[in-house]
Design brief:
Layout (H helix, E strand, L loop, with lengths): L34 E5 L28 H14 L4 E5 L9 H9 L6 E6 L4 H11 L3 E5 L5 H8 L4 H13 L5 E6 L5 H15 L2 E5 L18 H9 L4 E3 L10 E5 L5 E5 L12 E4 L4 E3 L8 E2 H6 L4 H13 L19 H4 L2
Parallel strand pairs: 1-2, 1-10, 2-3, 3-4, 4-5, 5-6, 6-9
Antiparallel strand pairs: 7-8, 8-9, 10-11, 11-12
Helix pairs in contact: 1-2, 2-3, 3-5, 6-7
The structure holds S-adenosylmethionine.
Length: 351
């Protein structure tokens, strides 16, 4: 098995020395984090079977959640001092935050202005897409795993497919483009769902991204031998479409892009497990309770909330964030023998 398949970068030389005091947000493998994922809440209004139990989770206590002014300050530090150029609001479900428009506007006022994106389940997006675009949101990823109403309800445990479709349409109408659709496929029905999702996305001008299911579910039920792999997905799509690797350079994008039926439509497959792309990772994450995580699968966090609430100045916050990222692991290690699933599920980290 290759290092890459183990989720370990194969070509990254290790840098030694002290945590840099300025410049990009580097780790010891020379990767620079420019993409900040900010989780605004761990709560969600869906209960996707691969993410949360039917009864939800023990939500983070309100006093532990960052206040909007604290989120805005940390985003400002990331953009103006740490070289972050892209900010994505996520959760839990970020549309559950009443302050989302305000935070988007505060982020859009920063210089250099970062690109601002949102990952959402789309429920409630129809009502807010215009206000979010007006506040400065650039683009949106909407999670949608099946177009079949009964399957959607079985996966999400909620009967909200029509709300999600309305959210997608409103996002397109509001110019939040490209509108991307993120799908995590069900092992039983996912092959058929992938085909109908791709047809639907091509027809509506949305960009489909199919994501391999990862061991980040709260109930620790993920099983490698059951989850669909990128190869399974590509085989299913190839039965109905002609796929050709997209010639555009992939850079740090997690999705491997394929041109469909000669283009211009494309589909992306994110093989986080079977073909890990950790060596190109440019992410840094801030949880809703103010912890920096250098990796989705990190078992260490750096507590910025306590620092901020203790009166720390921007220099101290910057230094703590730099130290957190300096110790970023080489790879997520999902495929390694010693892999331990992180305690926090995806919904409490921010996907
Ligand atoms: N609620 C928002 C949403 O649904 O997009 C944002 C948060 S959700 C955790 C972000 C993304 O993570 C969604 O696309 C979801 O499908 C994905 N996700 C959740 N659990 C996952 C898992 N175990 N493996 C892979 N992706 C997962």
């Amino acid at each position: 098995m290759t290092l890459t398949a183990l989720g370990l970068p194969s070509v990254l030389p290790r840098v030694t020395g002290d945590v840099p005091a300025d410049g990009p947000l580097l780790d010891t493998f020379g990767r620079a984090a420019t993409d900040l994922r900010v989780s605004l809440t761990d709560r969600c209004n869906l209960r996707c079977t691969y993410c949360m139990p039917a009864d939800g989770l023990d939500w983070l206590p309100g006093d532990q959640l960052l206040r909007p002014d604290e989120v805005a300050r940390l985003v400002r530090v990331a953009v103006t001092r740490l070289g972050v150029t892209r900010v994505r609001f996520t959760g839990g479900e970020p549309l559950l935050s009443r302050h989302l428009e305000e935070l988007v506007a505060a982020t859009a006022s920063l210089r250099p202005r970062p690109e601002i994106a949102l990952t959402t389940n789309g429920v409630g997006l129809a009502k807010r897409a215009t206000a979010l675009a007006d506040a400065g949101l650039d683009r949106v990823n909407v999670s949608l795993d099946s177009l079949d109403a009964a399957r959607f309800a079985a996966i999400t445990r909620r009967d909200r497919l029509s709300d999600v479709l309305a959210g997608l349409a409103a996002a397109k109408e509001s110019g939040l483009s490209p509108v991307k659709v993120n799908a995590v496929l069900d092992p039983d029905t996912g092959r058929a769902d992938a085909v109908s999702l791709l047809r639907f996305c091509l027809e509506h001008g949305y960009q489909l991204r199919i994501i391999e299911q990862m061991p980040l579910d709260a109930e620790h039920r993920w099983r490698r031998d059951v989850a669909l792999s990128a190869d399974d997905v590509l085989a299913a799509l190839r039965s109905q479409f002609r796929l050709r690797p997209d010639p555009a350079p992939r850079g740090s994008a997690p999705a491997q892009l394929w041109q469909v039926d000669g283009g211009p439509g494309t589909v992306g497959v994110i093989a986080s497990v079977s073909h890990a792309f950790c060596s190109a990772c440019d992410r840094t994450r801030l949880t809703a309770d103010g912890q920096v995580r250098s990796c989705l699968f990190a078992n260490r966090e750096t507590d910025l909330r306590t620092l901020v609430r203790g009166g720390a100045g921007d220099d101290a916050v910057e230094a703590a964030w730099r130290a957190a990222m300096w110790s970023k692991p080489a790879g997520h290690g999902i495929n390694g023998p010693g892999f331990v699933q992180p305690q926090r599920p995806m919904s409490a980290i921010g996907g």
